[in-house]
Write a structure and sequence with these properties.
Shape: globular
Radius of gyration: 23 Å
Structural class: mainly alpha
């Protein structure tokens, strides 16, 4: 890597970590307020019906990566006019996708609310309102995908960080309003019909919360659109001038396969809530909602590095520098894993105490759900960068088809297992097995497309990460044998985790060359600032 590239990645990473440090604690406190205000069952209901709103961020980022791939590739080539054509073709394409998705969601909603979902009859009208807010958010999210791609391809992490902090603060205000400022009508009038029932629904805490969250989603996306049009010259909508049928076909082909992967991943995630709800009801959905909040916030620590590195991977491919692509991918995989492990291990060990400290009423199964999902996330994290590398080369049809089909299988197996009386956490065990199978597929495609040495990856990345995590876990767990549960033990665990992490990752996790490069990079950044 050049010194300029190193400084850019370091700057972007620092900005994103500052954003994350502010937003994580705000988001977790807002979750506590929301759970208290809505109650376990309504919180579970929101996670079931309106939970797709939370996944829109994932869908948005996944779909944006397809457009970003073309934009970053063109930036690597230095072709501004091509970037303008890509932006216009992408905008046109995603408008069509948005309309199609909304139609599909409306049809699916009709099926869901006619006996499929396990929802109490008196909460069904509220659930339908929440679902419509989700549909509206989906429309705006998909239309705004090209703008997300523009921001990421330009590596403008400062704007991304500022917007993220504002969004977290507004979410906190929404939670405070629902907890202390909203007005709920007495449930005794719910048997009335017509206008009285409609008024009751509109003043329901869950409806107010869902409506405000949907408005916030739309507001953030509109803000991105306005900013991009004022800041970046390629954000010039003129379909007649920039229409290119060959480019449109190429983007459509790539985006279609990318959307297939994103859509099946979202269906797989949301399908977990539906399958669990079908057998166990909204109370267990509340545990899934807590799991999504915790894992989403902690995963942001490692996603920061991926956010900073991914555009560079694609630009390096656009410039034809595959050696840099592989080096960045291998190192990025290890760094992302270690950053995730740093926060996951103490949370895994002390989760019962942390949850009781954080939440007034911990939903059943929340702790075991989170622990099993932590294991799956660590497996996935090792191979996420390889998926980006596969996308960078553009030949993703076969890869997306295989992985998309594979993502549907866990839901089928889980449904069968639940039929035979297996407990709710079985679904997370099945998805751990899926992650292992998916990782093997990613490795095989990386070898085929980039001539990646599987032996070197397993030796220098997988084994080093695995051994490091086992050693750190065993040492960090020692206080559980010597101390009673409490704040002192939690602080001791955190201290041991930090010290052990620095030693083990430094001498086992990284190779000698990687340690030397890290020291060199640190010195370059430090002396330039001085």
């Amino acid at each position: 890597m050049t010194t300029k590239t190193i400084h850019r990645v370091a700057k972007n990473t620092g900005i994103l970590y500052l954003r994350m440090a502010i937003t994580v604690f705000i988001s977790l406190y807002a979750t506590r307020l929301t759970l208290t205000a809505l109650g376990v069952e309504d919180f579970g209901l929101y996670n079931l019906v309106g939970g797709v709103i939370a996944m829109l961020g994932f869908l948005n980022a996944s779909m944006a990566s397809a457009t970003q791939r073309f934009m970053s590739f063109a930036q690597g080539e230095g072709d501004l006019e091509k970037i303008k054509r890509i932006f216009n073709m992408s905008t046109l394409l995603h408008f069509g996708i948005a309309i199609a998705v909304v139609i599909i969601l409306e049809i699916a909603g009709y099926i869901f609310f006619n006996g499929f979902l396990n929802i109490e009859p008196d909460r069904l009208p509220v659930a339908k309102l929440v679902y419509q807010f989700m549909v509206a958010s989906t429309l705006f999210t998909i239309i705004s995908v090209p703008y997300e791609a523009v921001i990421t391809s330009h590596e403008n992490m400062l704007f991304y960080a500022i917007l993220g902090i504002i969004e977290s603060v507004l979410k906190l205000f929404i939670a405070l309003y629902v907890a202390y400022g909203s007005m709920s009508l007495p449930s005794g009038i719910f048997y009335l019909t017509g206008q009285i029932q409609i008024i009751y629904n509109l003043f329901d805490n869950l409806v107010i919360y869902s409506f405000l969250m949907a408005c916030l989603t739309i507001l953030m996306l509109i803000t991105k659109r306005i900013y991009c049009h004022k800041t970046y010259p390629e954000c010039e909508i003129n379909f007649k001038k920039h229409y290119n049928p060959i480019l449109f076909k190429e983007i459509t082909h790539f985006a279609s396969w990318s959307f297939l992967g994103s859509a099946t991943s979202m269906i797989s995630h949301y399908g977990q809530s539906i399958v669990v709800n079908f057998f166990f009801g909204t109370k267990v959905n509340a545990a899934q909602g807590i799991n999504d909040q915790v894992t989403g916030q902690l995963a942001s620590f490692s996603n920061v590095m991926l956010k900073a590195l991914n555009p560079m991977i694609v630009k390096s491919e656009g410039a034809g520098n595959r050696e840099l692509v592989l080096k960045t991918t291998m190192l990025g995989s290890k760094i992302a894993f270690f950053l995730l492990m740093l926060f996951y291990l103490p949370a895994f060990i002390e989760m019962p105490y942390i949850f009781n400290l954080w939440l007034k009423n911990v939903p059943d199964y929340a702790i075991i759900f989170c622990r099993l999902f932590f294991i799956r996330s660590l497996i996935d994290q090792l191979f996420t960068n390889l998926s980006v590398t596969i996308s960078a080369i553009g030949k993703i049809a076969k890869f997306q088809l295989i992985t998309s089909l594979l993502q549907c299988l866990p839901l089928v197996f889980t449904f069968i297992l639940f039929k035979y009386g297996y407990p709710p956490y079985t679904i997370y065990i099945v998805f751990i097995i899926y992650s292992i199978m998916n990782s093997a597929i990613i490795l095989l495609f990386s070898k085929k497309l980039y001539n990646l040495s599987i032996n070197i990856f397993l030796k220098d990345v997988f084994m080093r990460c695995f051994l490091s995590s086992v050693i750190i876990y065993l040492i960090t767990s020692i206080p559980l044998l010597l101390m009673n549960e409490g704040m002192e033990r939690l602080i001791t665990v955190l201290f041991l985790d930090g010290i052990t992490f620095l030693i083990v990752v430094g001498f086992i996790g990284f190779t000698k060359n990687e340690r030397l490069n890290f020291i060199k990079i640190t010195k370059e950044i430090y002396f330039q600032k001085v």
